[in-house]
Amino acid sequence: MKKFEIVETTADVGLKVFGENRKDFIENLIAGFYYLVFDENINFDEGLKSNQIVEKDFDDFEDFVYDLLNDLIFYLYVKKSLFKVKILEENRAVFEVYRNSYFIEIEIKAATKHRFCVKEYKGLLEGLIVFDI
């Protein structure tokens, strides 16, 4: 199964994300977001050190995904940090936060609600996110 694909849109950029379960979906979402920003895959095993833990509780998974994307943007551009999933439970997520050492190729301003969706189909998750650049 493919993890994500880039979706071309007029003046913005989209990301279609796939996952076999929620944790897989979130890991692929984060990988796809960083691929857009850095134009390369991030390898957390290459000398990056975790310096913080962030916990998020949620009731609605789709709202959580949208909020997480804007948290990723904030942490990347303001705190110069990256997220990696540590734990994802039914209504709680824990992320390790790493200091960013990668060159940013594209600036993403925000995740938008335009065409935003997360759906479950035949036991698999699929989502579409459009980013304002």
From TrEMBL:
SUPFAM superfamilies: MTH1598-like (SSF69819)
GO MF, one example: metal ion binding
Name of the featured protein: Archease
One example of a Gene Ontology biological process annotation: tRNA processing
Family, as annotated: Belongs to the archease family.
Keyword Cytoplasm tagged: no
Superkingdom of origin organism: Bacteria
A Pfam family the protein falls into: Archease
UniProt-listed Gene3D superfamilies: Archease domain (3.55.10.10)
Lineage: Bacteria, Pseudomonadati, Deferribacterota, Deferribacteres, Deferribacterales
Organism listed in the record: Deferribacter autotrophicus
Domain Archease as annotated: residue spans: 4-133
Keywords assigned: Calcium, Metal-binding, tRNA processing
Keyword Metal-binding annotated: yes
